[in-house]
Amino acid sequence: MRTSFLKKEELAAMDITHTANGLQIARTRQRLLLTRLFGLTILSLVVFGSSFWTGGATLFDDMLFLVGLLLAVVGVCGRLWCLSYICGQKKRVLITTGPYSLCRHPLYFFSFVGGIGLGLCTEMLSVAGIFALAFALYYPPAIRGEEAFLSGNFPDYEEYRKRVPLFFPRLSNFVEGEGTLCVRRFRRELMAAGGFLLFIGVFELLEALHEASVLPTYFLLP
To answer: Is 49 helix (H, G, I), strand (E, B) or coil?
Structure first.
């Protein structure tokens, strides 16, 4: 009887794990779909529109591009830094060192920084603003879901939560620690980073085509 009861408990635990994994896969697919749709929307704005600041007497458009480039590089490098610590251990081990000693969700933070940077590389403040709004609407529920999972599965998470901020880094908290590296996942992230930065070149090419009147400009965005 006891063996039968234990088997039922094990099966129930397996069902819960399977359901949780299925929900995680569904959320990941939804996130990828929304990201692609958002990317297409931004690309459409850049293809059919142009920056209000381009061609003016000031250097404001150049400043936007340089700041955006810096933020995009910081975002990409930050994500790679996070993966060097969490790669292959996500949801298995509570990582509290490296970027995870600065804030509890550094991958999201650096994604936000990189996205704002990419938006500024279009030399349109409005594009960066649209990204910030989309991020603010979509990612907080995802973060709350991860917080609930971590609180329920790692007893030490409550103490970690009290001393480490949720999203914005606290530099005084930094602890180096030791990272791990999953080569396959890291290689995929490197390829994704290359594709992300490639968009900057695409934006510059589209801007040149607008300036040469090869592409018509239907509207100007600040």
So the answer is: strand
Separation between Cα atoms, residue 53 and residue 121, nearest integer Å:
12
Tell me which amino acid residue 14 is. M
Rounded distance between C-alpha atoms, residue 3 and residue 154, angstroms: 28
- Phi first, then psi, for residue 51 (nearest 5°) are -75, 135
Q: Where are the alpha helices (DSSP H) in the chain?
A: 2-48, 60-86, 106-120, 125-153, 157-163, 183-211
Distance in angstroms between the alpha carbons of the first and the last residue of the chain: 72
Q: By the 8 A CB rule, do 222 and 125 touch?
A: yes
Q: Give the residue, 41 or 159, on which the prediction is more confident.
A: 159
Model confidence at 20: pLDDT above 50:
no
How many Å apart are CA 131 and CA 135, to the nearest integer?
A: 6
Instruction: Please give the pLDDT value at position 16.
Output: 42
* pLDDT given at position 28: 65
Residue type present at position 170: R
